[in-house]
Design a protein that fits this description.
Elements (H helix, E strand, L loop, with lengths): L2 E6 L5 H12 L3 E3 H5 L9 H12 L4 E4 L4 H10 L2 E5 L3 H15 L13 H30 L4 E5 L2 H14 L2
Parallel strand pairs: 1-3, 1-4, 2-3, 4-5
Protein name: Adenylate kinase
Keywords: Kinase, Transferase
GO molecular function: kinase activity
Length: 174
Amino acid sequence: MKKVAVFGNAGAGKSTTSKKLAALTGLELYVLDKVKFSAGGAEVPHQQYLTAHAEILAKNEWLIDGYGCLESTWTRLAEADTLVYIDLPIQVHFWWVSKRFLKGLFQPPQGWPENTPLLKSTINSYRVLWLCHKKLTPAYRKYVAEAAKTKTLYHLRSKADIASFLQSITKTSR
């Protein structure tokens, strides 16, 4: 577990899981939303993002949280030795995006660039949530079924799976 990609739909708990996993493993955490977006939520130029992403992948160890863009996703998943795919029922994703919005009224969401507009980003999360569910989730599921032959795979399908996964890492990291 030296190159870990944590991925899944919007509102999957990727940032929370990644932060805990980084603390347990000592791997440096890279949050793609903070690479792809600057403070205030403005998207950085695409080539700048791709260059930064490539620099992260070139390191000996990393823990990468998030999506970034389609082009970088498949490259990252191919480079990772460990895949953590959070694949919850869509209703859970929807609820967690809603919960993140409500909590965000009082405290900025984890993994978001500073001063990101909460309402605009939440509305975008709902849009992405549905598009990902329809288009990307089937591709992710197909990919992880094949990747399980050559990589360490954690396909987490519930909140209990996430907790068990983190608990198993806690036991092995002692």
